[in-house]
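Example 385, ligand flavin mononucleotide.
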Amino acid sequence: MGSSLGRLFRVTTFGESHGPALGCVVEGCPPRLPLDEAALARDLARRRPGQSDLTTPRREDDRPRLLSGVFEGRTTGAPIAVVIESVDQRPQDYAAMAQVYRPSHADFTYDAKYGHRDPRGGGRASARETAARVAAGAVARRLLAERAGVEVVAWVEAVADVDLAPGEVDPLTVTAADVDATPVRCPAPGAAARMAAAIEAARADGDSVGGVVALVARGVPPGWGDPVFDKLEADLAKAMLSIPAARGFEVGRGFAGARLRGSQHNDPLVPGDAPGAVRPGKHDAGGTLGGLSSGGPLLLRVAFKPTSTIARAQATCDRAGRPTTLEASGRHDPCVLPRAVPVVEAMALLVLADHLLRHEAQCGRAVTGAAPLAGDARLWSGLLP
Ligand SMILES: Cc1cc2nc3c(=O)[nH]c(=O)nc-3n(C[C@H](O)[C@H](O)[C@H](O)COP(=O)(O)O)c2cc1C
């Protein structure tokens, strides 16, 4: 249970950390969308371990194989199945942890629920599962770009106590190339260097650090989402908090906004570019109002805890409930943030692709050109007798 996300653009992932392969099945993707393995591989390469000194040295090629749903470089409308085979498995790395629960990892809760656990990296709780999400997210990225001109960019905003200065990165213009220019995936080189030093210092101490990923989705037209349980920000929150090690979610000003007055926080509405169009004049609400996209950039943040598996001795219990000490072995990320960036993007892309199709199914075409309501109404008037 719980391995699927989305209603119309529906993704199911499968596979465990040290199984022979993992992957995803994407249902509902419209036909005739250009798609090939290279598009999936580009996104997967950003999540892959071993990209820099700041991530785990585990070697996972993460080469995607498209098994179905694509013919001659275009989607067919059939389920798209992607498989990623596992290489460089070293189950012996986990031998010492087979009977001992890692504090802050899923070992204890898995055992409590299922009565067994896969000590080789955490089974379904392993962040390796996120490779399947990134593959599915690459399909969603293509759909959103082709159909609606939407682009999604995430970056590292904080590591440990190193923060970007306010305004140091402009969400309206930041690009994936800016983000990937530093190994930390922070587009401000000075802050990125300080973040890298914080990660190195934690690793040297046999320890780990957490941080914050920020994301912008540009080009989302007004009206995507739903007003009650499936508010756009509610679906995004669920998607983001489903990422391993995610511990907090904010949209727009988030928790800081709770300390402002309405006169400070409210985004004025101003005329948009097209005749009759309206848009927010600033973006403290983060691009949604009443669960529906407002046409402004969608802005959100995800907080990640420090990696749980660390080399330092930690107090814990074994499977028999006896107190013990664990000094974890294996090759772990001293900070998950640089590799979490493409995963955060993937989750946003999946939610947005689903809401694009849902909006089209209920209201007509997603991209309306002129004033959104007038545009949709025009479409409806063409459909109705
Ligand atoms: C990209 C990424 C890489 C991760 N790498 C590791 C790792 O090397 N070692 C580890 O213990 N946890 C790692 N995690 C986090 C664990 O998978 C996660 O903490 C664990 O499954 C428990 O789930 P929870 O933190 O959501 O409660 C990573 C998470 C992400 C998003």
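Summary: The first helix runs from residue 37 to 47.
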